[in-house]
# Entry
Amino acid sequence: MALAALLCCADAFAQSRYQVGVCDWMILKRQKLGAFDLAHQMGCDGIEVDMGGLGQRDAFDNKLRDPQEAAHFKNVADSLGIAVGAIAMSGFYAQDLTQKATYMELVDDCFNTMDCMGGATVAFLPLGGCGNDWTTDKAKRREVVKRLHDIGEAALQRGKRVGIDTPLDAKGNLKLLKEIKSPGIAIFYKLQTIIEHGWDVPADLRRLGASNICAIHASNTDGVWLRNDSLVDMPAIKQALDQMGWSGWLFVERSRDTTMVRNVKLNYSANVYYLKSIFNANPVSEVVLDSVGRPTDYVQTIIKRSQKATDELGITWTPRGQNVLNIISNRYFELNDIYAERDSLKATDKKLAEAQCDARLYRSHFAFDGALSRYLQPKDIEKVKDVMTFNVVKVTYDAQLDMIPTLTDEEKQQILIWLKEARELAIDAESSKKKHDVFGKYKGRINNYLSRRGYDLNKEREAWYERVKARGGKL
# Structure
């Protein structure tokens, strides 16, 4: 009991020590209410909310300046359990801090927004708009330092800290912070910067020190997901942060897979899930995977097969997706157990073996629907079943309509009813061959039905073949 208590405390500490979120502007939800729901679906602890566009204007395009709008945003965030971990002034990625006469008004607007959104204490200020020479141009560097000192002192008065994004390593950042002379300024650490320069991230983190890091953009440039990025040794990064005693927010800014860069939900869900798995912040799945005592290779094969369904739904790497994945995997395990028991009993009593198998399949069939309904809508449950039956319903239905364009609505409906009925039986079948056999029987039933309705299927099939051939396809 003592050990269990210690483990629970350790898990709770890990979850409070490291929090994982995404940048709202990078998930295409800059200052949009939908950012909170999307973050919730992706399993985030919170989001980094942007102040809005800046451009050549003197003020951010900040809708949260309106108290009613800000209150609405906060209510939505609170209802979903999504925190506002930081407020970003991403407009300074492109705008020069040293050329903005209204820079203190802009910062003050940011601080006010932080207060309205639940008291976030960290602001993000990139210095990219200052150009590439500000670190070496003495005059410009002095101006950057002066303005950052003013900003830092203002942050202290408001109980906040501004994290700057620089192109420097730990040595350069420590020198810069010493020049700024304000504890209100810290480093908003960015893995991408360190990796692009070829520097050692864990060593750089240790040299910079925990007290100088207020938050981390824990991603690389776009290319592949974090889990697949050979340039990011996330376990080593966590080890360094653990040893430093650092705690705080890890925000995913990029690391999108460029082969599907527009799939926002999948890209960021995958990266959030990976960060949480490394930093021990993943919630325990409600549905336990029934993998104990099963061969590891077999379990991995089933998980991979089941993931095709959660990929189709776009919920892989989310808490809901993990539960659905486990339900589908457990269903495959259960089918395997049912048929293994049947085969074992057949040697002594074949009739009893089949009867018991049918009874277990009946109970399992409806229990599967019930388990999925806790996490999915009926239309999504149908998608799961389609994936589990190789999408035969859609392929066959579309082929029938293409082969016989004159089908009536009544005939189309009847064909679809039978195909879905076949699918219900096929998901209980013990192998892919048996699943296709089920559909084969129903296809025969459909052909007999259409023949009775007066269709000459041989002629329809020949005409279909010619149409398909004419448009460059083949059957």
About this structure: Strands lie at 18-23, 46-50, 83-88, 122-126, 161-165, 185-190, 213-217, 248-252.
